[in-house]
Amino acid sequence: MEYAIEVHGLTKKFGNFKAVDNLNLKVKRGEIFGLLGPNGAGKTTTIRMICGLMNQTEGSIKVYGYKIPEERKEAIKIIGYMAQRFSLYEDLTVYENMEFFGRLYGINGINLRERIIELLNFLELNEFKDRLAGKLSGGMRQRLALGVALLHKPKLLILDEPTAGVDPPIRRAFWGYLRGLNKEDVTILITTHYMDEAENCDRIGLMNRGRLIAIGSPRELKRMAFGGDLVEIKVQGRIDELKDFRILEKKVDGENCSLKILLSDASLELPKLLKYMDGAGLKILCAETINVTLEEVFIRMVMES
Description:
By secondary structure, this protein is α/β, with parallel strands linked by helices. Helices cover 32% and strands 31% of the residues. The strands form 3 sheets. Strands 6-7-8-3-9-10 form a 6-stranded mixed sheet, with helices on both faces.
């Protein structure tokens, strides 16, 4: 089975309002897939339907071949879900929460104890295992919620804004845990509105107003938005035009000239361009690709959609 998730024509209406509008999506097994978009884009509604927590108005959903919601009982055995809001028991300790939910998953005895210890060590929560969940910091709460979602060793981990409201160092650590899980062949579907952390995903779906407006790897999305790779080259000498290359911006400062150029593929075309410039008698002072952010990509694609 190539795909962990297959969604076709997924639509959710609340009265006359379409929260999700005819969404088509395939998530490959073993990849980290991000749904990226602002609050209200339809990300949470989408994953709640994929988990079977909310019925779709139209469309079909399959999770590892199981139809949702028809075969939800079978599907939830292989899904780990972490909600946007902390929903564990604040009057239970870290260990007690994991023990309680582990039993709900049907894990008991020494198997449950060993799994809890394994996750406490993995998530660096062992020293806090006897602390009440209500007394944990935001970052530790998120780690506990992740631990609970992983108790039954799910094939698919679905995370809704897991790093919202936590400090950047904790966000980095959280992504470290996710990459470790991904190496163990866990498929991860994650929603976020943090454009920078979406760079960690293998592929990204950009959502806006309930619609999926683009899908691809971070690099592919950047090329889609701008039509290629942007490079900046500074040369000594005069240059008016470049045959077969598109100059987006030119600044002249005395004998020096700074150019922003659009290339279809910088890894292939930049060496040819530099060789051409050198042959034209230009002294190359600097040449580098311009790092385009996903925020710039998103804004550009939203304006064009």
